[in-house]
Write a structure and sequence with these properties.
CATH class of the largest domain: Alpha Beta
Helix content: 25-40%
Distance between the termini: 76 Å
Number of helices: 16
Radius of gyration: 25 Å
Structural class: alpha/beta
Number of domains: 2
CATH architecture of the largest domain: 3-Layer(aba) Sandwich
Length: 490
């Protein structure tokens, strides 16, 4: 048989396309195989870690990193931050039809015709020099009111949890887009080589009152290479699986094994040009480095008792919100770019009178302690802390007014509150407002895409210019929307 013809027959379609794009991922691979030279070059330029896109940041950033305390399930803004005396005045009366007419709600109240106003179940008071209104359920948060920037006019488009969370974290209600942390890892790179640029930790309410699921796409990389996705730390045992060497394998043997494996993967990458092979090599290398960095990270023996006490009694119990908040501070000071702390359990449909207080007790002290801890270490100056959920809760009651033990509030996308603290935002400041019922964002409205544009701006990124081409078009976190909320910038 003709050897040339035989060669053509053996040249498969996969090999043809793979070799056509053989150059993809070469830079990433080179950065791994020559990490010592890279680190030296960066140190000589006054930088450390792994760089991102060469054109970023677009301008001088206020923040170097972000800690996002995402409260899954949606905290009730009208019970915690958005004091509305009108709710108490109208308690038990039908909410005005002009507010609810034509509005979408979840299936739990979508067909409910009686929608009595439910007054706040907490007591409100003003705190600090700023006079911020904060619920009695959040006493520690109230103490740091002058460090916080409250955005009280948030609104969104989603009425259910997974689409709402996905919208906040990826800019789309549909799964498949890169998450905020992935965009930042891709664009800005990492300040450290020993830990991932993007770390995720999850916790849930002790009573397991909420059946929400932590989907992987909440911290996924979407159409970006998977090396930019978040690394989820586990709530028990080793934070990341397979960091420990198998019995009988020394660190030196593992190093040799990884070198040989990298060589084999490089051959395969040259054959197929798949950038995900470079990601695989990167994951092996990061795991190797984390063998030494993670034990030091999780060793709390040198933390002062005064610091541990701030976070509360659960701080040493792995998998709790308090533990994760302390880990977030330790990750931040070690150069992790984006730390996503997610806590589920804020979904009080029929247990508002009992569960809301429990949720606040679990999260209030750790959230406030994190801000204080960062501040006393000088880290709050260049760390942006965000606290909030995917939407708010309805000012009207889900259920019947006479069934007090089963009072609850449904999902509410039309107006709610989140707070921010740290790098680049005005402390002791409240921006925007809802109407007298806490129903619609009425003054200085802030859409989810506006919020995302503002976060990127604080990190030195023009949200319209951080894009990635996929399926023939340029995508960005804010889609084709979003404006920077300049009045909240310090």
């Amino acid at each position: 048989m003709d050897p040339i013809l035989e060669g053509k027959l053996l040249h498969t379609r996969r090999q043809f396309f793979g070799r056509s794009v053989m150059g993809l991922g070469t830079a990433a691979l080179a950065s791994l195989l020559n990490r010592d030279a890279l680190a030296a070059a960066l140190a000589g330029a006054g930088r450390k870690g792994v760089p991102g896109l060469p054109q970023l940041p677009h301008f001088a950033p206020k923040a170097k990193r972000v800690i996002y305390l995402f409260q899954n399930g949606a905290p009730s803004h009208v019970d915690l931050f958005d004091y509305k005396p009108m709710l108490r005045e109208w308690h038990g009366r039908q909410i005005p039809d002009e507010l609810t007419g034509g509005k979408r709600f979840s299936t739990m109240t979508g067909t409910q015709t009686a929608r009595p106003v439910l007054g706040e179940i907490t007591k409100f008071a003003q705190h600090g020099k700023s006079g911020a209104w904060v619920s009695s359920f959040l006493p520690k948060t109230a103490e740091i009111a002058d460090d916080l920037c409250f955005v009280k006019s948030m609104y969104t488009e989603a009425v259910n949890h997974a689409p709402g969370i996905t919208f906040f974290l990826t800019g789309s209600e549909m799964a498949g887009r890169p998450s905020l942390g992935a965009w930042l890892s891709y664009g800005l790179g990492s300040e450290t080589e020993d830990l991932p640029a993007f770390v995720v930790m999850t916790s849930r309410d002790k009573e397991a009152s909420c059946g929400q699921i932590f989907y992987d796409f909440y911290w996924g990389s979407g159409f970006l290479p998977t090396k930019y996705q978040g690394v989820a730390f586990r709530g028990s045992g080793d934070p990341v699986l397979y960091l420990s060497n198998p019995k009988g394998m020394s660190r030196e043997v593992r190093r040799g094994l990884l070198d040989d494996l990298a060589h084999l993967n490089e051959i395969k990458r040259e054959d197929f040009g798949d950038p995900e092979i470079s990601t695989r090599i990167a994951q092996y290398e990061m795991a190797y480095r984390m063998q030494t960095s993670v034990p030091e990270l999780t060793d709390l023996s040198k933390e002062p008792a005064s610091v541990l006490d701030m976070y509360g009694p659960d701080v040493k119990r792995q998998g709790t919100y308090a533990y994760n908040c302390l880990m977030a501070r330790r990750l931040a000071e070690r150069g992790v770019r984006f730390i996503q702390v997610m806590h589920a359990g804020w979904d009080q449909h029929r247990n508002l009178n009992t569960q809301l207080k429990i949720q606040c007790e679990d999260t209030d002290a750790p959230s406030a302690a994190l801000v204080r801890d960062l501040k006393q270490r000088g880290l709050l100056e260049d760390t942006l802390v965000i606290w909030g959920g995917e939407f708010g809760r309805t000012p009207f009651l889900q259920g019947k007014i006479e069934e007090v033990k089963q009072w609850g509030r449904d999902h509410h996308p039309y107006g709610f509150t989140l707070w921010m603290a740290g790098a680049g935002v005005k402390p002791g400041f409240s921006y925007g407002a809802t109407d007298d019922f806490g129903f619609n964002a009425a003054e200085n409205r802030v859409h989810v895409h506006d919020f995302q544009a503002t976060v990127l701006h604080l990190l030195g990124i023009n949200h319209e210019r951080l894009t990635h081409k996929f399926q023939g078009r340029n995508f960005r976190l804010t889609d084709v929307h979003g404006h920077v909320v300049k009045p909240i910038l310090a």
